[in-house]
Every structure is written in structure tokens, then in C-alpha cells.
Amino acid sequence: MTGIVSRYLAREIAAATALVTLAFLGLFAFFDFINELDNIGRGGYALHHALIYVVLLVPGRAYELMPITVLIGTLYALTTLARQSEITVMRASGMSTWRLLRTLAGTGLVFVAITFALGEYAAPPAERAAQEWRLTATGAAVSQQLRSGLWVRDGSRFINVRTVRPDRSMERVRIFEFDGERMLSSISEAARGDYDAQAREWRLTGVVQTQFEADATALVELPEIRWRSDLTPEVLSVLMVSPERMSVATLNAYIKHLRDNRQNSDRFEIALWKKVVYPFAALVMIALALPFAFTQDRMGGVSVKVFLGVMLGVGFYLLNGLFSNLGVLHAWHPALAALTPSLLFLFAAAVMLFGVERR
Question: Are residues 158 and 135 part of one domain?
């Protein structure tokens, strides 16, 4: 009997969540396309470029929206079952609130797995491909952090890259190298840098090197030099993808790079914790939706409860962003910044379920 009920509930919730997800993805894709209309005609950017760019953004949107759509889909499915007295029949047959919650948790774990797969394997490459596609079509360079270009520390070297291309090649590269006493020993300026993946090193061409010695300065022109560095194309890829859209492996690699060079990594550590915690928000949302299934129709119909679900979902999304920014500003522990929104909503769900049991 329990297996039949579990499959029935899972089917209803999955169908409602899939419908809500498709509706939200269509809405956000429309907004993304509207935002791209202003760029059509710039460089070689045409209508089909904008359409492909919007399609490539879909996996990332699905990842961001999954907890919200799970909440709305579960809320709709359970409220519909309650209106048809099916929830009442289940409870009358001996299914307690906590047993029903455990049954729904099995469905929630499926959504946890889907969310993790989207965030780890679908969204990061799709987001990177979308940005590369857009930059290539417009003929633009990767966004620069400062007017002077990108600055990166690599051990005893400081690297300044004026332009990073969508293919992750570099143009107008300057390498400032310091000796053990922190004295500037050389400045190498290269016209272009391409990464050799097999040798795991950069090939710098058109190099002019200024060497500082104790009593003289030497200027050397070299057609090409090989440069081995921790600054790989994967590290440069952080310029094209926001930390929240990176994979766990990429975040780990970049955090290690920042720590090795004694740089602040708080933002990326918070993003890493969010990547781990965010999929489990689906379980929290299912728990939050359950108390609404026990309310009477006089307290609001399906449409009212779905609207409330939308508001709760938006609130969760905004709270996630708020605590991420607060964590960076106030140097909170990354786990605290990532876990707090989910814990707050879980606490709210527990309070409401306790209230249902008291009635």
C-alpha cells in the first residue's frame, strides 16, 4: 500500500514540477532574448547568434530555478490532492504527517540528484560555451577587471594581461618577476600567449625582455619563449563564468590557486559551499509545501497557494544572494553564508508542520 501511494505522489509531484519548470524556463528564455535584442547588429552578432546564446543559458537557468519549481510543483500537486480529499483519505488510512513527509523525501532525493547533475555537469560547460559563442560573434574580448587589464599573481611573478580572447589565448602580456629579496629582476612583454595543453605551458611570442642586474639593464628580444605557470586556461575561464555557475572541480582548482598566492578566496569558497548545499534545497522546499496540503479550502484555493509558493521561492532566491554577499562583506565562514537560507526555510517548515500536528 505504501509503495502504491509513494509512486502516485511521486508521479503527481514530478508532473507538476516538470510543467512549472518548462513554464519558468520559457519565461526566462524570453526575458534573456529581449535583453539580447540591443546587441543584435553589433559586430557580427545576428539574430541566430542571440537565439543560440539564449538556448545555451537554459541549463544554468534550470539549475537556479529547480528549488523554486519543486516548491511550486509540490504545492500545486498536494493542494490539488487535498481539494479532492485524497490527502484526507491517506491520513484516515493511517498515514501520519511524518510518514507522509518521509514518503515525499524519496521524491525529493530524485530532485536533489537532478539539481546536482545540472549544476555540476550541464550548467558550467553550457555557460562557458554561451559566453564564448557571444564573445566570438561580437568580436569582443573577455571582460577585464581593470582598465589596465587582468592582474594575476603566480608565486614570485605578477602577470598583467591586457586582453583575453574567447579561445583563452592572451594578448599583450606582461610578466613582472621578482627575486628572493622581492626585488624586480625582469619584465617580459609578449604580443601573444597560447597554451600548449600537452606540455602544460604557455608559448609566448613576440617577446621583449628587460633584465635588471646589479649595475646594468639589458634589453633582449626573443621570437618565442616557453613559460610554465599555474595560470592555466581553466583559471582564466573564471572570467567568463560566474562562481555560482562553475563546477566543484573548477572552484576547487581556483581556490587552491588563490590560496597558494595568498589571495582572498572568500567569494569562491562561499560559491563552493553553495554548490554542495543548493541541491538539498529541493528537500527543504518539499517539506515547506507539505503543511499547505492540510489547510482547508476556505483558507485559499489552489491559485492563492501557488502564488504564495512563488513568493516563497522568490524569497529563497533573494535570501541566497543576500547571504552570499553578506558573507563576502563581513568575512563570514563560507558554510554559514551558504547554509543559513536553507536552515531558515527548514525551520519555518518544521514550525508549520508542528502546528499541523497540534491541530
Answer: no
Range of the structural domain that residue 210 is part of: 150-239
**CA quadruple 101, 103, 104, 106: dihedral positive or negative?**
positive
Residue 76 located in a structural domain: yes
Q: How far is CA 127 from CA 99, 119, 312, 332, in A?
A: 40, 11, 27, 28
pLDDT of residue 85: 80
Integer Cα distance of 142 and 165 in angstroms = 6
Residues 15 and 122 in one domain: yes
Whether residues 176 and 225 fall in one domain: yes
- Kindly state the percentage of the chain with pLDDT values over 70: 93
Domain count, the chain: 2
Query: How many angstroms separate the CA atoms of 155 and 147, rounded?
Result: 23
**pLDDT at residue 180, rounded to an integer:** 80
Is residue 33 within 8 A of residue 55, CB to CB? The reply is no
* pLDDT tens figures, 138-148: 766 665 555 66
pLDDT at 25 over 70: yes
Q: Is 155 left (phi over 0), alpha (psi -120 to 50) or beta?
A: left
For residue 21, give the C-alpha cell: 519548470
